[in-house]
User: Fold this.
Amino acid sequence: QLSIIALCNELTCARHSPAEHRRQSFPTPETERLHSPSWRCVSGIRVFTAGDVTAVNGTDVRLKCTFQSSAAIRASSVAVSWTFRPLGSGHEETVFYYQERPFAPSEGRFKKKVEWAGDISGRDASVVLRRVPFSFNGTFSCQVKNPPDVHGNVGVVRLQVVRTAPLSEMLILCVAIGGAVLLILLLVMMVVSLRRCHRRRNPEPNHTVLRHEHNLINC
Assistant:
């Protein structure tokens, strides 16, 4: 087996040109076994996901999934499959399928709940879940195939649906809102101050005339 692996490396995974194959005019039993379907070297596709994701009940959440492939990316051949397995005991369910165009589920818990958010040319196979309920707690799997790269790992996203946002997210949200309000107040104060300063430097003509008439009467 080790000798076969070594031969596989030397032959660069059976990717020689036809001319190079013709030069190998004396095949050995080992090379014959190497070129048989069961021993053919195939590059695997690599899938990457966010891992653990938390979402608040009733909100939208993006399940990120990207991939790398040694084969050329052709939008017509790339196939993306999303599946779901709920927490505890439960069977695997189809969530979404994409090949050239999205195929959303027409029934089940994911009907009208999942949308395509990826870009095949950008090696992105992400989807968005709309208004997630607690029943979406579980494991989502993302599988991508790009022939001849059809073997590889399956990306996994563990989704946790909670009642409220975690403290860190709430803190960030409060700080962002407070900062926005403070910025608006500062802008309003600056505008008011500039207007007052402008009025002091350039008094209205009517006020000047009235003041002059008042001085004449006193005289």
Notes: Residues 4 and 30 are 7 Å apart (CA to CA). The chain has three domains: 2-39, 46-162, 167-218. The first strand starts at residue 46 and ends at 49. The chain is about 30% helix and 25% strand.
